[in-house]
Amino acid sequence: MAIMQETKYIWKNGKFIAWAKATTHILSHGLQYGTGFFEGIRSYPTPEGETIFRLQPHVERIFHSAQALGMKLPWNKKQIAEAIIATARKNKVSDCYIRPYAFYGYQKVGPNPADSPVDMIIACIPLKDYLKRDFIKVTLAPLARIAPSSAPHGTKISGMYYHAALSGLYAWKRGFDEAIVLDHKGYVAEGAAENLYMVKHGKIYTPPADTILPGITRDTLMTLCKDMGIPIQEKRLTLKMLQDADEVFFSGTAVELHSIGQIEKKKLPRKNPITKELCAHYMDVVHGKVGKYKRWLTWI
Predict the structure, then answer these.
(1) Residues involved in catalysis
(2) CATH among 3.20.10.10, 3.40.50.2300, 3.65.10.10, 2.60.120.10 for 136-286
(3) Each residue of 64-77: pLDDT tens digit?
């Protein structure tokens, strides 16, 4: 995983402050109970300047997560989008990972956050390579993903990421790069924090949206595959199906597209023509080289 790199400014509650002064009380409700949520957004250099990729869907998900937590943000969607752009612009960083994070602040004891203050920050972190190795090694996490009936769907609530943390830690301790997680019925769901795909006989398969976090990068790839004429289909997958696949890869805002070269002890093929073609096209799109997708770019 990438190491945190400091930039100069963080947006906090409507004002820019120095990175080192972006602090909060140690007894903040969100810190103790996980009652916050975050987004991961990317900016990329293009021939016309630095842009943010698919800003609006991320803003929409910010408000979806806030609603799930019963949180009333003091800013509307337009103001949040403008704050994200302004934070990226002020820090003057290229190839940037933008992290909005809202949480219930310091006031109350107990898990009920009602009437607690709301704090929000937006940070920019330089990021080029989230995973350093090509054809990463993955292992099967011992704990199943949180069942759909146990958590609000399609949100990035901080407390729910305990599972991603435990899965990633399990993989790291065993010498793997990342983990694959099963759903509550025993089918493959996703990576610890990535969406997952397999290729078999020229067709891409990915788990259905009902047991995963259906990512914005995933949505992007579904559109690109359709436009490129690459068949893609949602399907319940098993670990055995992945191990017998022609290609397996992850996607996500941070990870972008990344090939998997080994699942447990099973080594996978390394030619990966479809993954390579899709990845190359995706990188052209995010860097503003494909005119029809410039609607997904917001100039900083």
Answers:
(1) 156
(2) 3.20.10.10
(3) 999 999 999 999 99
